[in-house]
Write a structure and sequence with these properties.
about 110 residues, alpha+beta, Alpha-Beta Plaits, two-stranded antiparallel ribbon, about 20% helix, about 40% strand
Length: about 110
């Protein structure tokens, strides 16, 4: 058995969960945040047989899209507090970060 932990952008979570459920995979959805921009993410927990891991990853890969978002950095505090805020920059967000863990025991109660 394997536990697939997939961290996806919150905008992609619904389509990932729907695709997984439609393919017969149950998953647990956890609201999370983090990364460079401290944005909202969703972590999906999916318990599957080892032979099904690639199918699960393919389903997520097809729905977790990378996109560009404009990011405005906070103005500096301290001695430079009166300085202008840095200009906004475009950053790439989204996609998925996937971990596959071997598990000794998996039960649905």
């Amino acid at each position: 058995m394997r536990l697939v932990l997939a961290i996806v952008h919150s905008k992609d979570a619904d389509s990932c969960v729907t695709a997984l459920n439609d393919a017969g995979f149950a998953c647990t959805r956890l609201g999370t945040s983090g990364g460079f921009l401290d944005r909202e993410n969703v972590t999906l927990l999916i318990g599957v047989d080892a032979a099904q891991v690639d199918k699960v990853i393919d389903l997520i890969r097809g729905r977790a899209k990378r996109r560009n978002e404009r990011f405005q950095a906070a103005a500096a505090a301290g001695p430079a507090a009166g300085a202008a805020a840095p200009p906004p920059v475009d950053v790439e967000v989204g996609g998925a970060t996937v971990f596959v863990l071997a598990i000794d025991r998996f039960e649905r109660l």
